[in-house]
Amino acid sequence: MELFDVYPLYDVAPVSAKGIEVKDNHGTTYLDFYGGHAVISIGHSHPHYVNRIKSQLEKIAFYSNSVQNPLQQELVELLGRLSGCEHYNLFLCNSGAEANENALKLASFHTGKSKVISFSNGFHGRTSAAVATTDNPAINAPINKQQQVTFLPLNDFDAFEKAIQSDTYCAVILEAIQGVGGLDEPTTEFYQFIAKKCKENGVVLIADEVQSGFGRSGAFFAFQHHGIQPDIISIAKGMGNGFPVGGILIHESIKASYGLLGTTFGGNHLACVATLAVLEVLEQENLIENARTLGVYFKQEAAKIPHVKKIKGRGLMLGLEFDFEVADLRKRLIHNQHFFTGGSKNKKLLRILPALNISKDHIDQFFEALNKELS
Prior knowledge:
InterPro entries: Aminotrans_3 (IPR005814), Aminotrans_3_PPA_site (IPR049704), Class-III_PLP-dep_AT (IPR050103), PyrdxlP-dep_Trfase (IPR015424), PyrdxlP-dep_Trfase_major (IPR015421), PyrdxlP-dep_Trfase_small (IPR015422). Pfam families: Aminotran_3. This protein is α/β, with parallel strands linked by helices. The protein folds into two domains: 122 residues, Aspartate Aminotransferase, domain 1 (Alpha-Beta Complex), CATH 3.90.1150.10; 237 residues, 3-Layer(aba) Sandwich (Aspartate Aminotransferase, domain 2). It contains eleven helices and 14 strands. The strands form three sheets. It has a seven-stranded mixed sheet, with helices on both faces. Helix 2 packs antiparallel against helix 8, helix 3 packs parallel to helix 8 and helix 9 packs parallel to helix 11. It is globular and about 55 Å long.
């Protein structure tokens, strides 16, 4: 048997990691400025995270959602307090795509409608309705294209107002900072306009915080930079620091009923303690403030590089846009300088998504390495 070949792979095989350092099978150490698609939020193998999971594994790793799991209640209370979203209810699942699937399904149940508004360069997952709302025809199969999705330009007030007046939409789904699409953002005025029009027209506003949530933007959620209140918030990636966890926060105005949503693995004991560990470290080590502060420092240092034409993003969800495609630069950063970075749909954009506990020294090392490859 062979692996189904769907990923182009770099010739690097990590075997251990600590903090933002990753060691491969040849003993070479790399600095991880990508975090495996923004997944590593509190650093690889954080001792509190490891101890939490080891301790839980010795007790019980899994049972289904047919019985009570007190860890879920512990999680919902801490998440509500740290995020400032006490007026929401939590449904746990396993991934970002699954989170957005459940968000879209719930919006359709709630409104009795089926069409969705999404935005150019948005990315919401690779499954069913989630991939249908993703602006990439290459990953949409004919079965996905049965979904009714309207793609609009980001920050186009007229196009949005015209579309939403048709009274056929169940949901608007939006990333406050586009991840795969290349770090573009709605303006505060546009995000607030969307929220206002959704409320006026009875449309569910879904804030996709799968990549930008859990402190990465310098706020707990990136939509909080804009002073709006979504109806549903989808979360995943950084919430488990590598353990597969996802979920949606559902405003209390949307009511639950038995059988409305369901999952076998979602909210299992290990998933809960992984997420609790992340939240505890975020609070104890003040990592959201660290992300905000170091995001400012990173941008200041990036502005000194003539090759950088635009600096995008917030906190430690950042992009450097050049006047050339960066694929070769990424390879050289890996093989010559031993730095992991990311790409995006924007081929000229270098994506930076390190753990939230990096230091100024790590950023200085990154720019030293980058300058070597640009000289």
